[in-house]
Model the fold of this input.
Amino acid sequence: MTLYGGIDLHSNNSYIGIVDRENKVIYKNRHRNDLPLIFSVLAPYKDELEGVAVESTFNWYWLVDGLMEAGYPVHLANPAAMKEYKGLKHKDDKKSALWLANLLRLKILPEGYIYPKEERPVRDLLRKRLHLVRHRTSHVLSIKNIMSRNLGAAMKSDDIKTLQKKEVERLFQEPHLRLSVMASLSTIHHLTGQIKEIENTILGQVRLRDEFKGLLTVPGIGTTLGLTIMLEVGDISRFPQVGRYASYCRCVESIRRSNDKKTGEGNRKNGNKYLSWAYMEAANFAKRYYPAVARYYMKKTAETNNIVAIKAVSHKLARASYYVLRDRAVFDDKKLFG
Done:
């Protein structure tokens, strides 16, 4: 007998459903998130299971890795691409688990990419770097706002990061403002140290693979952003067209139109937010230091606004990166900007 399994995964429990080739329910029950317990539930059906579909939730690593190491054929379901029948009057975890199993049975399960386990820790460390960079930026902006409100003055972000206590005392006579600035400044200095430690650790252990070295020829992409893109993409061949890659990088708008009218919006969060950030960072660097990019950015700014313009630049760089990676080529700005 051929069987198909579906697991609706939650933070502290999982609902397991198993169906046969005729979609007859063989097993359905909820269990706590304990790998040995889940193994004991699936063990009687292991030899007959054609596959086990696990929904790609925030906490899928432990379950998918455990099942794969135990020899189960695992399929990571992409929830953003699955739409259950909208006319359903009732939906619960049992129906969701059996739905996953049934999609697997019908061979129409939208699957996500199971990123190699051995590379995930380094990728997650780079994600932590991004988290700290954003946290540091929020404190830099806070000091900028305090200066603008109370001094009517502006200071560059790089200068704020190097401010010392004596300079703060000279700028702010009011003790409460001074304390507020020093609180943010000490946090900035601490975060800068943590960010540098992460960068040194990663650069000392990871190198760009040969197929990703061409990224360094793309405007705005240096070693750190190149590593970020490499570790987030994994294998460029999983994107058959450039549009798929640009969409995954969140570089395309999520709007539905009909007869030149907006009829709705899609899921703007669908895709990889870390790649989106990487190409926005690259776009900001590129418009400062590459004349061709700067000209394109100014042209787009004149047509729309600076937010749309910088997004357009990031879209261009993402598309260029795709061809550089796919064709093992070197970036050519004439092909991108004419």
